[in-house]
Specification:
The structure holds 2 protein chains of 2 kinds. By secondary structure, chain A is α/β, with parallel strands linked by helices. Chain A has 3 helices and 11 strands. The chains are: A alpha/beta, B alpha/beta. Chains A and B meet through helix 2 of A and helix 6 of B.
Chain lengths: 229, 416
């Protein structure tokens, strides 16, 4: 286990050390202590390592992550795992706005609640939120899956494309072109897998969720739909 | 009675034939006009400035014998690897999607041969451009299409796009006709849909967030890459100051003459400021902060000639960027295609329906039958020639003003 004291050694030294891990390495377990809400912790990692951050993080923790498993033993600031490519990010606490923004792959697990714009513009990432999510979540979401065990705020999935949204609780309102869709067997199977990988299999069953997605009515501009925007 | 003089028909200066035609078009279609390019209205521009050549109080340099240097450094504030260009004329961001792959290749070829950089666009980085562009600026846009850390690390500079001159406050637009399989794959969107990019970044809002975002990008790229911030011509004093505050190495300022692949005509013509009005405000902001020349300023929007380059630099810019002019150098709107422009209901030098993807010159299209008309090697050579001519023109003016480097042009060399 490599223990890195962020308070003493600083962010640049941490990220520089993590970026030096290219391909396979035997230094696979890392612990970051004293994060104290610093920004961009473990941003840009590209190695199959396991990093545990003992405390809460600022903006963009695990930004653009590839391959790594990053565990935040606290809450995460805005833009956690933004543009993640692959790997896993698990947050024990809550996540601020834009969690998983534009994420292209991998799995983001938030064991608490997520604020507004969770999964904004997501492009392939899977996000599992054990609690609830705020307004404008999955705005312009292109692909990937967003699973919410709690409730969703206003304008869920506004102007979304092909992302799939699964919400167990209530949805305050749906955004433009977002509709409830039929839950077919393949969706139940997908959801079961996501709940398992998202460490939530013991908290909810796939049958309890509703599925939301794009009505695809705004994909090509039609003047008769102008009032929908 | 018939011999009495008659008042000739008089068109309204308000309801001109063009205005009336647009009203009829709107009434028939129910949708605003979408087009490419920049503003077409008359605006105060570089044509309204002149240089004061040397006289008794200043002496000139010999036009063909004494050196007048043209190189420029960009990104010297924080980046470990700032960019050094041979000429201060860069190629502005234009997306693969808006342009064909061969057109992007030609931009890379021409720019590299002339010793300057190209810039990606709202569609990610293509191999054509990375492969042929020695110095490539990678745009970081609200859509984040194609964004990934590997391309961030293999670019030479990162340009965080806040806005562009053609549509400050608006996002990108690429209509379904141009969303081919490859474009759809790169943007992770269904084929054939009208793609409308967000106008705001998904994970930051305001200058304080931008500062953290820039810091994250520097961390991901180990502080190697220069980070530009591109703003559209609106409130240039404050936007420049805030970009500097947020940690930019370079500010890119695009006036309303700057082109776009597609947006609403009303946006292009009625939102933004001409570049001539923008530059002094941006330079003032840099000077007030003590950052002029420390944070470099690149300006764009209607740059056409070496005279425009020299004037922009005399006003305080470090470099310029060209987009529309580069496309024309490649062959866009060339009268050689007049017969086909006529079939599209337009004429050479006026064609602006780039969003339809039917460009006879094969540049603003994703149609293989059209883009195979375009030879990227020849196009690259034409762009190189044009960049060289612009540089020679700017040097001619600078020498006449007694300057041995384009950067030594200053406002006192101008008759304003």
């Amino acid at each position: 286990m490599q223990t890195f004291d962020l308070g003493k050694e600083g962010l640049r030294a941490l990220n520089s050390s993590l970026h030096a891990l290219k391909g396979q390495t035997n230094m696979t377990a890392w612990e970051v202590i004293n994060p104290k809400g610093a920004h961009a912790i473990a941003a840009g990692v590209d190695a199959p390592v396991d990093i545990t951050v003992r405390g809460s993080t600022g903006y963009y923790c695990a930004g653009m992550n590839k391959q790594a498993t990053i565990r935040i033993k606290g809450s995460a600031g805005p833009g956690v795992a933004e543009n993640m490519m692959s790997g896993t990010v698990i947050i024990d606490g809550n996540a601020s706005q834009y969690a998983g923004a534009t994420g292209r792959g991998g799995l983001l697990v938030i064991k608490g609640n997520a604020s507004s714009r969770c999964g904004v513009s997501m492009k392939g990432i899977d996000i599992v939120v054990h609690g609830s999510i705020g307004h404008m979540s999955a705005f312009m979401a292109q692909s990937g899956n967003l699973v919410v065990l709690g409730d969703a705020g206003d304008a869920l999935g506004d102007s979304l494309y092909e992302a799939r949204l699964f919400v167990r609780g209530s949805v305050k309102s749906l955004g433009a072109d977002c509709i409830q869709k039929e839950m077919r067997p393949e969706h139940l199977a997908l959801l079961a897998d996501l709940l398992k990988r998202g460490e939530a299999a013991d908290k909810a069953r796939p049958e309890e969720f509703k599925r939301y997605g794009s009505a695809r009515k705004l994909y090509n501009f039609n003047i008769d739909n102008a009032s929908s925007y | 009675m018939t011999d009495l003089p008659r008042t000739p028909p008089r068109f309204s200066a308000t309801f001109t034939p063009a205005v009336n035609a647009e009203i009829r078009r709107a009434a028939a279609s129910g949708i605003y006009d979408i087009r490419g390019g920049g503003t077409k209205r008359h605006l105060p521009h570089f044509d309204d400035l002149l240089f004061l050549g040397a006289s008794i109080s200043r002496y000139p340099l010999e036009g063909y014998r004494e050196k007048c240097a043209t190189d420029v450094w960009l990104g010297t504030r924080f980046a470990k690897k700032p960019i050094h260009l041979d000429i201060p004329i860069t190629i502005a961001g234009m997306s693969f999607g808006a342009l064909s792959g061969p057109a992007k290749e030609a931009l890379g070829r021409g720019a590299t041969e002339a010793g300057t950089s190209t810039t990606t666009g709202d569609g990610g980085m293509t191999e054509e451009e990375r492969g042929h562009s020695r110095t490539l600026v990678y745009q970081y846009l609200p859509s984040r299409y194609g964004m990934n850390p590997d391309d961030l690390r293999r670019c030479d500079a990162i340009e965080v796009v806040v806005g562009q001159g053609a549509k400050p406050g608006g996002g990108g637009m690429l209509l379904g006709q141009k969303i081919s399989d490859r474009v759809a794959m790169m943007r992770n969107l269904p084929k054939g849909i009208d793609q409308r990019s967000a106008c705001r970044h998904p994970d930051w809002t305001g200058p304080d967030d931008l500062e953290i975002k820039i810091m994250e990008l520097r961390e991901i790229t180990d502080w190697e890459k220069p980070i530009y911030v591109k703003i559209g011509g609106a409130r240039p004093y404050y936007d420049t100051a805030l970009a500097v505050k947020a940690g930019a190495d370079v500010v890119v300022l695009d006036g309303m003459q700057g082109g776009t692949a597609a947006t609403q005509d009303v946006f292009i013509e009625h939102v933004g400021m001409p570049i001539l009005a923008c530059i002094p405000q941006a330079v003032k902001a840099l000077q007030d902060l003590g950052m002029h020349r420390k944070v470099q300023l690149i300006v764009s929007g209607g740059i056409r000639s070496g005279a425009d380059v020299a004037k922009a630099m005399a006003l305080g810019a470090d470099a310029v960027a060209i987009g529309t002019a580069a496309l024309i150098a490649l062959g866009d709107n060339d009268p050689v295609w007049e017969e086909e422009y006529q079939k599209l209901g337009t004429t050479a030098d006026a064609y602006d329906d780039w969003h339809e993807g039917r460009d006879p010159a094969g540049i603003t299209t994703q149609d293989p039958e059209l883009y195979k008309r375009f030879d990227p090697v020849l196009g690259g050579r034409r762009l190189k020639n044009y960049l060289k001519v612009m540089t020679l023109e700017a040097q001619t003016i600078a020498r006449a003003c007694g300057k041995n480097h384009l950067h030594n042009l200053d406002p006192r060399t101008l008759c304003r």
